[in-house]
Amino acid sequence: MGFLLGAALLGGFAVAAVFLLVGVIVKMVFWAVTLPLRLVFSLLFFPLWLVWTALRAVGLLVLLPVLAVGGVLVAGGLLIAGLLAVLLPLLPIVVITFLIWMVVRSFSPRTVSAA
Quick one: what percent of the chain has pLDDT higher than 70? Predict the structure, then answer.
């Protein structure tokens, strides 16, 4: 029974190998037949590709300063927002400390300069 299973498996691999070989040959023939057409179309579209690339480069050079200024503004806004997020919870402590300082200062005696 094991021999039959092995023979069937080997036969399946052989059939798969034949189909794979036929597929590779068909692909190579198709590639070789269409090669002249692909070369002609690539030579025709190469100037268009060059123009498109030049336009994209000019657009990038025009937009680069705008993007740089925008990036600096966004970074500054994020820095301010981060500082507020850190310092805002400390505001009640600062207010209470200031009020205590005002009360202590109002009850402390004044020093008179001897000028």
Answer: 98
What amino acid is encoded at 60 in this protein?
L
pLDDT at 112: 72
Q: Domain range for residue 18? A: 9-106
The owner of tokens 């005002």 is 102
Question: CA angle, corner 25, sides to 11 and 31, nearest 5?
Answer: 150
Q: Is residue 111 part of a domain?
A: no
pTM exceeds cut of 0.90: no
Distance of alpha carbon 88 from its chain centroid, rounded? 32
CA distance 103 to 89: 23
Q: What total number of domains does the chain contain?
A: 1
| Alpha carbon distance 86, 67 (integer Å) | 28
DSSP state, residue 1: -
